[in-house]
Specification:
The chain has about 240 residues and is of the alpha/beta class. The chain is about 35% helix and about 15% strand. The N terminus is likely disordered.
């Protein structure tokens, strides 16, 4: 996720109204300053798209102050010395904003790097599972999370994405963030199975998809997801059907 997100975040329709508390999932709180179109009806694609619009609406009202800037700096220093893919753009503050909007019970992240985004997710969530394949990154992520006082909230799992996904509960997550090297179809299917229907997936690095855009095509399949492409790299999706 990068700074382009803000540009796309301003391209929304007006005429918003309060979401009906009777029809939204219990884990999705609506505070007075947070608005959404209509109501949450899991059988209605338009309403799934409205949840995406709500996330973007609230995103613009959030402070850009980064409470975990030191973790970002340590990650960047590590990347320069390690020569790895532990990039940190604006993904931390953006994911933190989304987590504050959704107030999820449980979050799943694929691609921990050194724990920067996991810190932001953990600050507004009850439980986070984050997965990382690089042992050095796992060690640094755990250290950074401990320094931030989030070791009891965020669990760092070491291993291959698909292998770890198989060990996690189906339909157990309200929010997921993919920050690896472009998801393949198996990963997207696995993430959809882990999210509750109506759960939110943020997918980054879609511009790295060298399989003729199959990841983006899957995310744009209306039988599976309700998706808005924010940039060439990033998409926000809501699960329409976790088993399609």
């Amino acid at each position: 996720i990068n700074a382009e997100y803000g540009e796309f975040g301003n391209r929304r329709n007006g005429g918003l109204c309060e979401q009906s508390p009777a029809l939204r999932p219990a884990w999705f709180p609506i505070r007075p300053k947070v608005r959404a179109h209509g109501v949450w009806l899991l059988s209605n694609r338009r309403q799934h798209m409205d949840i995406v619009d709500q996330i973007l609406t609230d995103l613009d009202t959030r402070s850009s102050e980064d409470r975990f800037a030191e973790v970002q700096q340590r990650t960047r220093q590590h990347r320069r010395s390690h020569g790895c893919w532990a990039y940190t753009e604006d993904d931390g503050t953006i994911m933190g904003s989304i987590a504050r909007t959704l107030q999820p019970e449980r979050v799943l992240e694929l691609g921990s790097a050194c724990g920067y985004t996991a810190c932001h997710l953990g600050a507004s969530s009850k439980q986070v599972d984050t997965v990382e394949g690089d042992p050095e990154h796992v060690k640094l992520a755990r250290e950074n999370l401990a320094r931030a006082g989030l070791a009891d909230v965020v669990t760092v799992h070491e291993g291959d994405f698909e292998h770890v996904l198989c060990q996690l509960p189906d339909r157990g997550y309200d929010l997921a963030f993919f920050d690896g090297y472009t998801p393949d179809l198996a990963i997207l299917k696995g993430l959809r199975a882990k999210l509750r229907e109506g759960g939110v997936l943020i997918t980054s690095n879609l511009s790295l998809d060298h399989a003729e855009g199959e990841a983006r095509r899957d995310l744009e399949d209306p039988t599976k997801w309700a998706t808005r492409s924010l940039t060439t790299d990033v998409a926000v999706s809501v699960v329409v059907n976790s088993v399609a």
